[in-house]
């Protein structure tokens, strides 16, 4: 797993904008959340932006943050956390994410990575010569039972052998990725047993036969006697010793509301916080927060 950082400034576009259709969709999506909770739309909006441009640029992060009233760093945190978000231009025909976590590794993911290295590029996060294919190794994608597996854009391809994966890479490189059915590449439905179900094989029916308990031959175990009335009705006294929560917060740990509020206000005043993203704080920053140059609109080579 490599550190996930924004792409080099040389490929960052100067600006990002949703297309008209996507802007309407984003407005509808934001409206689904209660007032004050719009930031919950951050993942859907980032994903829509990625579906539109192929990857998430610094400008995309800032635009989404402005739309949701979030600090840029909060959206950057989301985009850099999830490997589903691509932080640099990727292949226009396929970006292959190979799971390299233990179950997939034990079932052959290293052979899949070797195929990526030989057919796409020796290094992850690099485009092939045509700019149509790229790959990377990622951590568990949640389909371990069907290991080894890869994800390509929104689909997963599971139960892979090196031979089958080789065919899949060739199909995507030829622009025929839609001919490959996502999911298990063997005789398996989802994550059910290979070759079909082994339990619950009878067809469900609304009819039920009456349950008759099996005969025991008179060897039933003795039923334990019910507790005596004296024991079952006796109430246990609840004291601070038997229930420490009754004591509540110790006095020495309590802070008056007035004191807490004045400390909060003093801290907000010293940080010049006003509840909005503080652009002034970012003016002299570098890297993820710095201003970008205009290079190639940030598009993957050969993508548009
Ligand atoms: S280990 Fe590969 S999907 Fe979980």
Give a written overview of the molecule.
Helix 6 packs parallel to helix 7. This protein has nine helices and five strands, in the order ααααβααβββαβαα. Among the domains are: 73 residues, Orthogonal Bundle (Arc Repressor Mutant, subunit A); 91 residues, Glutaredoxin, CATH 3.40.30. With 304 residues, it is an alpha/beta fold. The C terminus is likely disordered. 30% of the residues lie in helices and 7% in strands. The radius of gyration is 29 Å and the shape is flat. It has a five-stranded mixed beta sheet, with helices on one face. Bound molecules: FE2/S2 (inorganic) cluster. FE2/S2 (inorganic) cluster binds next to helix 5.
How are the SSEs ordered, and which strands pair?
Layout lengths: L19 H12 L10 H12 L4 H11 L3 H10 L12 E6 L2 H5 L2 H11 L13 E6 L11 E3 L2 E4 L3 H12 L9 E2 L44 H5 L23 H14 L34
Parallel strand pairs: 1-2, 4-5
Antiparallel strand pairs: 1-3, 3-4
Bound molecules: FE2/S2 (inorganic) cluster.
> Mean pLDDT, as a whole number?
86
> What is the radius of gyration?
29 Å
> What is the strand arrangement across the widest sheet?
2-1-3-4-5
Count of separate DSSP helical elements: 9
And the CATH topology of the domain at 94-184?
Glutaredoxin
| Bulk shape | flat
Enumerate the distinct ligands.
FE2/S2 (inorganic) cluster
Beta percentage is 5-15%
Outline the biggest β-sheet.
5 strands, mixed
| Order of helical and strand elements | HHHHEHHEEEHEHH
CATH class of the domain at 94-184: Alpha Beta
Alpha-beta classification: alpha/beta
Approximate helicity band: 25-40%
Distance between the termini: 30 Å
CATH architecture of the domain at 94-184: 3-Layer(aba) Sandwich
């Amino acid at each position: 797993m490599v550190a996930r950082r924004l792409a080099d400034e040389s490929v960052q576009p100067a600006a990002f904008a949703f297309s008209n259709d996507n802007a309407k969709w984003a407005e509808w999506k934001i409206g689904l959340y209660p007032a004050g909770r719009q930031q919950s739309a951050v993942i859907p909006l980032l994903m829509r932006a990625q579906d539109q441009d192929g990857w998430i640029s610094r400008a995309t992060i800032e635009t989404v943050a402005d739309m949701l009233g979030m600090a840029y760093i909060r959206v950057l945190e989301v985009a850099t956390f999830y490997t589903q978000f691509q932080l640099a231009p990727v292949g226009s025909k396929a970006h292959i994410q190979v799971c390299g976590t233990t179950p997939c590794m034990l079932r052959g993911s290293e052979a899949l990575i070797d195929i990526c290295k030989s057919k796409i590029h020796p290094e992850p996060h690099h485009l092939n010569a045509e700019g149509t294919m790229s790959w990377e190794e990622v951590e568990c994608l949640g389909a371990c039972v069907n290991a080894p597996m890869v994800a390509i854009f929104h689909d997963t391809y599971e139960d892979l052998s090196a031979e089958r994966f080789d065919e899949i890479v060739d199909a995507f490189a030829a622009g025929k990725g839609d001919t490959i059915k996502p999911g298990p590449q063997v005789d398996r439905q989802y994550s059910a047993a290979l070759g079909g179900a082994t339990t619950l094989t009878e067809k469900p029916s609304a009819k039920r036969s009456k349950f008759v308990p099996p005969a025991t031959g008179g060897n039933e175990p003795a039923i334990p006697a019910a507790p005596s009335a004296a024991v079952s009705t006796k109430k246990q006294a609840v004291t601070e010793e038997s229930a420490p929560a009754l004591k509540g917060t110790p006095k020495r740990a309590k802070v008056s509301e007035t004191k807490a509020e004045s400390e909060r206000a003093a801290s907000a005043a010293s940080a010049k916080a006003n509840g909005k993203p503080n652009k002034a704080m970012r003016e002299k920053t570098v890297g993820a927060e710095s201003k970008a140059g205009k290079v190639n609109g940030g598009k993957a080579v050969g993508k548009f």
